[in-house]
Design brief:
This protein has 26 helices and 21 strands. The chain is of the alpha+beta class and 882 residues long. It has 4 domains: 214 residues, no CATH class; 169 residues, no CATH class; 218 residues, no CATH class; 174 residues, no CATH class. Strands 1, 4, 5, 6, 7, 8, 9, 10, 11 and 12 form a 10-stranded mixed beta sheet that branches. A 6-stranded mixed beta barrel has the order 14-15-19-16-18-17. Strands 2-3 form a two-stranded antiparallel ribbon. The radius of gyration is 37 Å and the shape is globular. It is a multi-pass membrane protein.
Length: 882
């Protein structure tokens, strides 16, 4: 720096003016660095966990897929046990244990069980020391891992239970739902804790595994080599042994056995890492992806900052040219200034990112991931952070550096305050912008409209075509922004000037923005990126939610139904916050017969009024000669929609029950409780079939209640509906309610995460607005002094800067919202890719209003300091500046 006097001059004149640009670099780099460090932390945690699980063995054979069935005993065959016994006989093998797996659960006092964890045999091939208690010795004893102790709150002496539900002989899936299974249980007492990493797990003796009600499933064969054994040689012998054993088996058993692979500990760790690291990578890549967006926005901010700096230094640069500085020196000094800013901002970003990653990993260790290693700085993260900061700032400073090199020495003689008028955008710029915009958005529209067909361009996936088109189209919008944004801001100022008290200030603010179209466009573009992304996610999430809800409404038009009617049930439903509305209908017992057989059920008499307040779709009531049947009947009584079904009311021959039988066309409903059939009065025989003497005598005792879920109910809350209904009947169907609540929470959660991440780009853009306005104060001191001299007060001068910031934000919001509506709809349409799903855009007006409000408020706050600085310019001091 000492050898570059131009750089020293630039840095002295810049002072604090580069602070906001450096902050933009730091925030962007921090996102990337935090993502890299969290990826490293998760990867190390997974590696340690898998290494701990594999420790103690030299070779491991995963046997999940080995299966066989003894037709005589009706018991599963443990092919892995026979294989392990044969491996034990090989030279160089010390221990070969076939590990099976089962599940133990903790039973509550009411008989309900918590989610269990996996158990397997104790084995000398496992590493780990007993931290508490002792090893399991008896068949009813279990040792648990330290993760089970800490994560599940278990203690020595607790009882865990293995359960199996056994149905009567011959009962299979699809058997009558009233067939009650026999629950076989075996209890195990916790006698020790094994100090090892990994998921919660238990360890039993061999006798303990045999004692489990359900036969253990094959998991793995763990091999420990003798001192003289070589892993490679034994690995080959075992592979040959597997082939020999498979030769004498039937085709299915042989196939499952020959797929086994003998892997060393290192190989098994690598394989399991590849299987389990997807979620960690996804989390980190998500942060890196949105960090890249903020990097792009910060590039716009930095470029804008340097352009304003170069403009404010025009006379200084011209004087330097006049005393001998060359064009190359001016360019080099500007690029070096950008590089220095990038290194400092990158270093700050590395520190911020490392701190954020450390904090997140510490929180994760204290809450849901006690084995997660703390995130620590790595050479890769530091190198990427510093390199990214350097590259972004140097590239962003490239165009301003070229402009700095073009400053003529004669500019030093130009009268202060006179700057050449900005020219109109070139024809080439307009043509390129139009081609990118129209071509890109045409690709987006094509992907949205043709996603469900086979005519997507080049046969590429529709979402890929849509994303590529959106990127091209948005780049086109940025190219054309200089043609649109300054006039839009000027017109906004003209409109705002019609308000009382803003006639002069608003018009001046609009005119000022139009006088410097490059700076205005760059500032608005940075905001435009963030607004468009946030708005797209809002519209996309709302549209996707509507599409999913429409699909759910088709599959589950009634979200819950119960085979009960009564005042107590109605009172509970009316008081519940989970229920929006409900209705009931009377029923009668009947025999349901079809082409596949017959069974007993209940026939419910409904009409359009029954569904008016509870259904999500219209036209649910069946027509004359039609019936809606519970899904249970499909495959048991008839096969598929449109089949004929005979409904016969209960009664004797003398009552004419058989003569009152009706034949209806069946349709299947997945939202009805078991044994339920819906019909309307038009399907019943006679003029008044529901009279007291008729077998078709409907009553509340055989009726059902239909329920509509309240808005905003989450998945955990929705499970409470089952508890409410269980107090009144065992037959109910709440699948629709659970599905709707689950979809709602998932979409809201994804939207929240994405909005938080995208908030970084908006923050960087707001910093850019503040920076640009702060730097523009330097160019406008004489303007402010002249306005003060002709009678404008300080408040009005500051107000003019604030209005300018709001106009810039409004222009970005207007264009960004229009793009967001289009891209949000097109994104969902391109991903749905189903002809029977019509995707109509759903605009979340409240969320968009919040976006507008927050952005305008942020812009006003960003203008606070620049407005205050300009309002303090004294007329005499400002007019005397050179």
């Amino acid at each position: 720096m000492s050898r570059n006097p131009v750089l020293r001059v630039n840095l002295r004149s810049a002072g604090r003016k580069l602070f906001a640009a450096g902050a933009a670099v730091a925030i962007s780099v921090a996102f990337i660095v935090a993502g890299i460090l969290m990826l490293d932390s998760f990867t190390r945690g997974l590696t340690q966990q898998i290494e701990a699980e594999a420790a103690g063995s030299d070779l491991i054979i995963e046997t999940h897929w080995v299966s066989g069935w003894d037709e005589e005993t009706q018991e599963p065959l443990r092919e892995d046990v026979a294989l392990a016994e044969a491996i034990q006989e090989l030279d160089g093998v010390a221990v070969a244990d076939a590990i099976g797996s089962g599940y133990l659960s903790e039973l509550a006092e009411d008989g309900s069980s918590t989610i269990g964890f996996q158990v397997g045999e104790q084995s000398a091939t496992r590493a780990g020391e007993i931290a508490q208690g002792r090893e399991a010795q008896a068949a009813d004893e279990v040792v648990i891992s330290s993760a089970a102790l800490e994560g599940r709150g278990l203690e020595l002496g607790d009882t865990l239970t293995a359960q199996e539900f056994v149905y009567a002989e011959g009962a299979e899936e699809g058997a009558p739902e009233d067939a009650e299974p026999t629950v076989v249980e075996q209890d195990y007492t916790v006698v020790g804790v094994l100090d090892t990493q990994g998921a919660p797990r238990g360890y039993l003796t061999g006798a303990g595994m045999e004692r489990m009600p359900a036969s253990p499933s094959p998991e793995e064969i763990r091999v420990q080599l003798a001192a003289e054994g070589e892993a490679t040689a034994v690995q080959s012998q075992i592979q040959e042994l597997i082939t020999e054993q498979a030769a004498g088996m039937d085709e299915d058993r042989a196939t499952s056995l020959t797929t086994l692979q003998v892997q060393t500990t290192e190989e098994i760790v690598d394989a399991r890492m590849a299987q389990q690291s997807g979620s960690a990578n996804g989390l980190a890549y998500l942060a890196i992806g949105f960090g890249s967006i903020s990097v792009f926005v910060s590039g716009l901010v930095i470029s804008n900052t340097f352009q304003v700096l170069v403009a404010s230094r025009a006379r200084t640069l011209a004087l330097l040219r006049a005393i001998g500085a060359t064009s190359v020196q001016l360019k080099r000094a500007t690029l070096l200034e950008g590089g220095l800013l990038g290194l400092i901002g990158g270093a700050a970003g590395v520190v911020l990112g490392a701190g954020a990653a450390l904090g997140f990993s510490a929180i994760a260790r204290a809450t849901f991931a006690p084995d997660l290693p703390l995130a620590t700085p790595t050479v890769l993260a530091v190198a990427v952070g510093l390199g990214l900061g350097l590259v972004v700032t140097v590239l962003s400073a490239l165009l301003p550096a070229i402009k700095a090199g073009r400053v003529s020495p004669m500019a030093a003689l130009r009268p202060v305050g006179l700057t050449p008028a900005a020219g109109r955008p070139s024809r080439a710029r307009i043509v390129i912008g139009l081609v990118l915009t129209l071509g890109g958005f045409a690709a987006v529209l094509t992907a949205a409209l043709l996603a469900a067909g086979e005519n997507v361009p080049l046969g590429l996936p529709a979402p890929l075509v849509g994303v590529a088109g959106a990127m091209l189209g948005f780049c086109g919008v940025l190219v054309l922004a200089r043609l649109v944004v300054p006039p839009l801001v000027a017109h906004g100022g003209a409109l705002l000037s019609r308000l009382p008290g803003l006639r002069v200030n608003a018009r001046l603010a609009g005119r000022n923005a139009q006088q410097v179209p490059g700076r205005t466009t760059a500032t608005a573009s940075a905001l435009l990126v963030g607004v468009t992304l946030v708005g797209t996610m809002m519209v996309g999430a709302s549209t996707a939610q509507t599409v999913l809800y429409d699909e759910l409404a088709e599959r589950y038009p009634v979200e819950a139904s119960a085979s009960a009617v009564g005042e107590e049930l109605e009172a509970d439903l009316a008081e519940s916050d989970l229920v929006e509305s409900f209705s009931s209908a009377a029923g009668t017992p009947a025999t349901v017969a079809g082409e596949l057989g017959s069974t007993e059920g209940r026939v419910i008499l409904v009409d359009d009024e029954t569904f008016a307040e509870v259904a999500r779709t219209e036209g649910l009531a069946p027509g004359s000669g039609e019936a809606v049947l519970a899904q249970q009947f499909n495959g048991q009584v008839f096969s598929g929609d449109g089949a004929e079904v005979e409904l016969t009311p209960y009664g004797t021959a003398s009552s004419g029950a058989k003569d009152q039988a009706i034949t209806v066309e069946a349709s299947i409903a997945s939202w009805l409780p078991a044994e339920t059939v819906l019909i309307t009065a038009g399907s019943l025989p006679g003029d008044d079939p529901a009279q007291a003497a008729s077998p078709w005598a409907f009553s509340d005792a055989q009726g059902i209640t239909l329920i509509r879920l309240a808005q905003g109910v989450g998945p955990e809350e929705s499970y409470g509906l089952a508890g409410l209904l269980e107090d009144h009947t065992e037959e109910f169907n709440d699948v629709g309610a659970l599905m709707r609540a689950s979809y709602s929470q998932t979409i809201d959660m994804v939207l929240l995460i994405v909005l938080v991440l995208l908030g970084a780009s908006v923050l960087v853009a707001v910093i850019g607005v503040s920076n640009t306005l702060s730097l523009s104060v330097l160019e406008r001191r004489r303007e402010a002094a002249l306005l003060r001299a002709v009678g404008m007060n300080r408040r009005s001068v500051g107000q003019m800067i604030t209005i300018e910031a709001l106009l810039l934000a409004s222009a970005a919001l207007l264009i960004g919202t229009i793009l967001a509506v289009f891209l949000g709809w097109a994104g969902v349409a391109s991903m749905v890719a189903r002809e029977d799903w019509a995707v109509a855009v759903e605009i979340p007006w409240l969320r968009l209003v919040m976006l507008w409000g927050i952005t305008l408020l942020a812009a006003a706050l960003a203008a606070l300091l620049p407005a205050r600085a300009l309002s303090k310019v004294e007329p005499a001091a400002g007019l005397s500046e050179d």
